[in-house]
Amino acid sequence: MTQENAQNDQQINVELSEDMAEGVYSNLAMIAHSNSEFVLDFIRMLPGVPKAKVKARVIVTPEHAKRLLAALKDNIRKYEDAYGPIQNRSEEEATNFNFPMNFGGPGGEA
């Protein structure tokens, strides 16, 4: 067995705490990069709140960013094979996107 095959057969024990398992909801992501890293900020925007908050920041190497892109493409393909195509917004819709003030629920009254 080659060293590459031996490495592929190794299992990684990943620990996931209860707090981390809950996850963080994000409806916006911003990506920046330098020559040595990519910075992914996951942001939550709330309706009627002019200030959005970064809920998580992940910093990765360029090589890892490329592997992440490949993994996302593979998972999106598998998702679409199972559930159908994900609808893309037109570029104009995406740049003019606004949250409804009440998220489709009843409006507040004072």
TrEMBL record:
<dbReference type="Pfam" id="PF11950">
    <property type="entry name" value="DUF3467"/>
</dbReference>
<feature type="region of interest" description="Disordered">
    <location>
        <begin position="87"/>
        <end position="110"/>
    </location>
</feature>
<protein>
    <submittedName>
        <fullName>DUF3467 domain-containing protein</fullName>
    </submittedName>
</protein>
<dbReference type="InterPro" id="IPR021857">
    <property type="entry name" value="DUF3467"/>
</dbReference>
